[in-house]
Design a protein that fits this description.
heterotrimer, A alpha/beta, B alpha/beta, C alpha/beta, A: alpha/beta, five-stranded mixed sheet, globular, C: alpha/beta, Nucleotidyltransferase, domain 5
């Protein structure tokens, strides 16, 4: 489906894309070019956060505004510096880390109202034709080992890793990486049992043989949970690949091949 | 003007010879194998002895509290709010499990806390608070609290994820929401928080509601209602203690020579977060320290020289040995921001208690933009005549990667003084030399800016 | 008629190792190694030819070969490539049938592999980005401290207080060591600290895995003091593999046999 509306760059879970559309904008997740990120090599700075900031502030960026949700400290702090150099309005939407409390519900409602007011003030920029930019595509009829992929937003560097996975016979049939749409649980919620339950459910539904985690260096929220993921809370084996802005594909390939061998031995999935 | 008595911190053996009775905990820890204590140097006053005794006997106090049936509250992440509430109830002891982050430096045998965290997949790419996970996993550092609270939301990622892992070990946590503090929008009702920053009233009300849940949990824990009257009294006592610490800091910072070494000042400031599990003793310790520094200032006694470079120090260090380098490099602290400056400001006493506590909590510099923290640092540096800035980068802490550059940029632009950002590892026996080199270079730069020709020397 | 001889080639970062496995007799016939080099394919071929010649064999006498290691896709001697994770697992289980985990520390990487009861790989973790958890670190420090590698253990045993080394990078760790020497720290304490630092980093790869039988392989397994350092970090017994440098090549050879269905003796392997 081709959309043709002014664009609003979004990132983070729980973005009210319906509200953005209702105001006549198209929410898009910009292509994250981690390799070009100015923060490559800056110790402690997340490549996803930095490349999103670069994408929305780049010369030639065609966004009318930018909206992000406060999923993590990295994105919150990146937004602080982004505000200084962004030529279009920026909205930082406070999303609650807690769930199910009156305060969490109130915060979401208040922030939605605030976003509504913000969007009504955004001057419409040029309409841009985009494919359904928020769709996540996966292999349709794969052979090989059926795996799901999890992580934060995918960068261009991550996509090279996904291609490599495909080469070694790991077919990504379910993409659980962060997506602005939807209201699914996210790993930074407190407590986050709902996230693990969701991951388990979706993994079973997709008949996965295993999961692949594309982990950004400096992403503490996901890194801290690798132990629980690998311990089997989802019931499936996990391959953890640290990607970053410049993944070392040779090293990651060894791990991916070893994981394919592991799945082969376990009898999971199809033939390699 | 001639300077009075020049004070010297004493090494462990010298301290032990004179002071062992007064600070039994220090000696006992050393005898149990905490050899790193011997690398510290101690202020030789009875007030400092009492300070170290308070700090190093916390675990004993917590164990005693458990034995006598007191309710133990572990207040995580929030720096100085929930303990104020907890101590308003009789029979409650509150402590700060996050404080485990610096025990491995002091206590060699708690190196195992990091190893335990490693086993649980929380390695040294996380900040030293990971020692807390090790402590909960081992279960032998402090009694498992009867109630664990943790603020979440606008908090650093590594802490949030470590706390989640603690819950995963089987320790339920009362999570309470701390929203990212934003500027009020035009026309939006706003509140001026302690310290001067503004926040939307809606955010104050939200945090107050969350603290209401904490209050309810505390009440349920003890069976006693945490009424507004009790909260108000708790706030009043906390403010009394905060006032003592404010006075202590002001006197130390303004004195011609440092009347208290950097190390003891850091430890003293840390007490305000949770009163080190003994609110009354914390007040007494701070009163003693205040009296001691007043006496020293009156007789012009102090560490180093009056022309020592005045340093403003941002962020605490896990390895306390780094603090002893301040005096060794011809400098002294003239201002600090160890991540909890909001805990020095008075909690409002003219507002409903929960709202007042919410204002105090929201004023946390870590909850809002780094630019506001930078503003406060610049203002303090200007007021206190700071000649140089040290920003410590805490290994693995998610906020440090972004904040340090912003702080330094603001200070350079607005004050033009030399700045140093340095990552101090949690445990490194060789880091002292590297730290000293950096500090000495900073001091040299500050002296050059001052126009002084005297060389940097070791003055302690 | 099948000779039932299979070859495993481990093209590592420092050395190329070869093992010959007789599937019919279920024994390792021979192992050998040579230094790595620019033309690793030629080196592997030459090494294999020498090893075969010692048994009166030629290339055509081989029933199969598997390559592993960093250079597994570059050496032409084998038709199939299998990762070193899997090959080390197979090799360790062949030499130590009760093994439930292995730790491999080579010159430039380290890995932890957890094994199921039947020898399958259950999980693995690798460090091939940071030299501070590898043999390279030991080499650099040994050279700096002027202590031969084979005396590191004896030296560390004299430590009264291992120095805490914090750097995650071997270059900066070397600077730390220089600083410690300048501060008058004893060489024994520094050596003990370095060994402990490596062991701690590798133990972190193991996480909370509670393996009963941990086998230590790789070139660093032969460095005195390292097994003890690992045991302290893991809090569990660690045994050095019977042939620590060769477990990858042995595993590769066995895997090659396992994939040849004409060798029923290898059917007991789960591959």
């Amino acid at each position: 489906m081709i959309d043709s509306r002014p664009l609003i760059a979004v990132t983070g879970p729980l973005v009210p894309c319906d509200l953005i559309r209702a105001h006549g904008f198209a929410p898009v997740a910009p292509t994250l070019r981690a390799c070009a990120s100015g923060a490559v090599g800056a110790a402690g700075v997340c490549a996803v956060a930095q490349s999103w900031a670069d994408a929305v502030s780049a010369d030639g960026a065609v966004f009318s505004a930018a909206v992000l949700t406060t999923r993590c400290d990295q994105i919150r702090r990146t937004a602080e510096t982004l505000r200084d150099r962004l030529r279009v309005p920026l909205f930082v939407m406070n999303i609650p880390a807690t769930r199910g409390t009156p305060a969490a519900e109130r915060l979401l409602a208040d922030e939605r109202r605030r976003l509504d007011a913000f969007l009504s003030r955004v001057p419409p920029g040029p309409s841009v034709s985009t494919a359904a930019a928020l769709e996540q595509s996966c292999a349709s009829e794969p052979d090989g080992h059926r795996v799901g992929v999890f992580g934060c937003c995918l960068t261009d560097a991550d996509r090279t890793v996904l291609s490599m996975l495909d080469e070694v016979g790991l077919r990504v049939v379910f993409d659980a990486t962060e997506h602005p749409q939807g209201t699914r649980p996210f790993i930074g919620q407190r407590p986050n049992e709902a996230f693990f339950a969701w991951l388990d459910r979706r993994g079973r539904k997709a008949r996965l043989a295993g999961w692949v985690l594309l982990r950004q260096p400096w992403c503490d929220l996901i890194h801290a949970e690798v132990f629980r993921l690998k311990r089997g809370e989802t019931g499936l084996p996990w391959l953890v690949l640290e990607t970053g802005a410049r993944p070392t594909l040779a090293a990651l390939r060894t791990r991916a091949e070893a994981f394919a061998e592991l799945l082969e031995q376990a009898g999971g999935g199809g033939d390699v | 003007m001639s300077e009075g008595e020049t004070l010297s911190a004493v090494g462990f053996e010298a301290w032990r010879t004179r002071r062992a009775v007064a600070c039994a905990a220090l000696g006992r820890h050393y005898d149990e194998g905490d050899a790193r204590l011997a690398e510290l140097r101690f202020d030789p006053s009875p007030a400092a002895d009492r300070l170290w005794e308070l700090l190093l006997s916390e675990e004993d106090r917590l164990a005693e509290a458990r034995r006598r049936g007191a309710k133990i509250v572990g207040a995580m992440k929030d720096l100085g709010t929930v303990p104020v509430m907890a101590y308003a109830l009789p029979g409650v002891v509150a402590f700060y499990p996050d404080g485990a982050w610096w025990t491995p430096c002091l206590m060699k045998h708690t190196d195992g806390l990091f190893a335990r965290a490693d086993e649980l997949g929380v390695d040294d790419s996380f900040c030293p608070v990971r020692a807390m996970l090790g402590a909960f996993a081992q279960g032998d550092r402090f009694p498992i609290p009867d109630l664990l609270t943790c603020s979440v939301g606008a908090v650093c990622d590594d802490f949030s994820s470590i706390a989640q892992r603690v819950e995963g070990l089987g320790h339920p946590i009362l999570w309470w929401e701390m929203p990212y503090r934003r500027m009020p929008e035009p026309g939006e009702p706003a509140v001026v928080l302690p310290g001067g920053v503004r926040a939307p009233r809606a955010q104050v009300e939200l945090v107050a509601a969350e603290l209401g849940r904490v209050r309810d949990a505390l009440s349920a824990l003890t069976g006693g209602a945490l009424t507004n009257a009790r909260l108000a009294e708790g706030i009043r006592v906390a403010n009394r203690i905060r006032a003592v610490l404010r006075s202590l800091r002001e006197i130390v910072f303004a004195a011609p020579r440092a009347p208290l070494p950097a190390l003891e000042l850091l430890v003293a400031e840390m007490l305000i977060i949770h009163f080190c599990s003994d609110r009354d003793e914390t007040e007494a310790v701070l009163e003693d320290l205040l009296a001691e520094v007043r006496r020293r200032v009156a007789r012009s006694a102090g560490y180093g020289r009056s022309d020592d470079v005045r340093l403003f120090w941002v962020n605490p260090v896990a390895d306390l040995r780094a603090m002893r380098e301040v005096e060794a490099c011809g400098a002294r602290l003239c201002g600090t921001d160890f991540l909890f400056t909001h805990a020095f400001d008075p909690i409002p006493e003219d507002a409903p208690p929960l709202e007042a506590l919410a204002c105090s909590a929201l004023a946390d510099p870590m909850v809002g933009p780094a630019s506001q923290r930078a503003d406060r640092v610049v203002d303090e540096m200007r007021r206190l005549g700071a000649e140089a800035l040290v920003v410590v980068r805490i290994p693995g802490a998610s906020h440090c990667a972004h904040e340090g550059a912003r702080l330094i940029d603001a200070v350079r632009r607005r004050l033009g003084v030399p700045c140093l950002e340095v990552e101090v590892p949690s445990l490194s026996d060789s880091f002292s030399a590297a730290m000293r080199t950096r500090l000495e270079a900073l001091v040299e730069a500050a002296r050059a800016a001052r126009g002084a020709s005297s060389a940097v020397g070791s003055l302690s | 008629m099948s000779s039932s001889i299979f070859a495993g080639v481990d093209a590592g970062s420092r050395a190329i190792k070869i093992a010959l496995f007789h599937a019919g007799r279920d024994v390792v016939l021979e192992t050998d190694a040579c230094d790595q080099g620019v033309d690793q394919a030629a080196r592997a071929e030459a090494l294999l030819a020498r090893v075969l010649a010692r048994h009166g064999l030629k290339r055509d006498d081989l029933d199969g070969a598997v390559a592993t290691g960093y250079g597994r896709h570059a050496v032409g001697v084998a038709r199939q490539a299998v990762t070193e994770i899997t090959c080390h697992a197979v090799g360790v289980r062949f030499l130590h049938p009760a093994a439930t985990a292995l730790i491999d520390i080579g010159g430039q990487d380290s890995k932890f592999v957890q094994l199921a009861e039947d020898g399958r790989v259950l999980d693995f973790a690798m460090n091939d980005r940071c030299a501070a958890g590898t043999g390279r670190f030991l080499e650099v420090i040994a050279q700096r401290l002027e202590v031969p590698l084979d005396q590191l253990g004896a030296c560390a045993a004299q430590a009264d207080r291992p120095a805490a080394i914090s750097s995650m990078c071997v270059v900066f760790a070397e600077s730390e060591v220089v600083g410690l020497l300048a501060a008058g720290e004893r060489v024994a304490n520094i050596v003990a600290g370095v060994q402990q630092s490596i062991a701690s980093r590798v133990a972190a790869l193991a996480g909370a895995a509670r393996a009963k039988e941990i086998i230590f392989t790789g070139g660093v397994a032969g460095v005195s003091g390292m097994r003890e350092a690992l045991e302290r970090s893991l809090g569990r017994p660690v045994a050095v593999a019977a042939d620590p440098r060769m477990t990858g090549a042995i595993g590769a050879a066995i895997l090659s046999a396992g994939r040849d269905r004409a060798c029923p003796q290898t059917r007991r392997m789960p591959y």
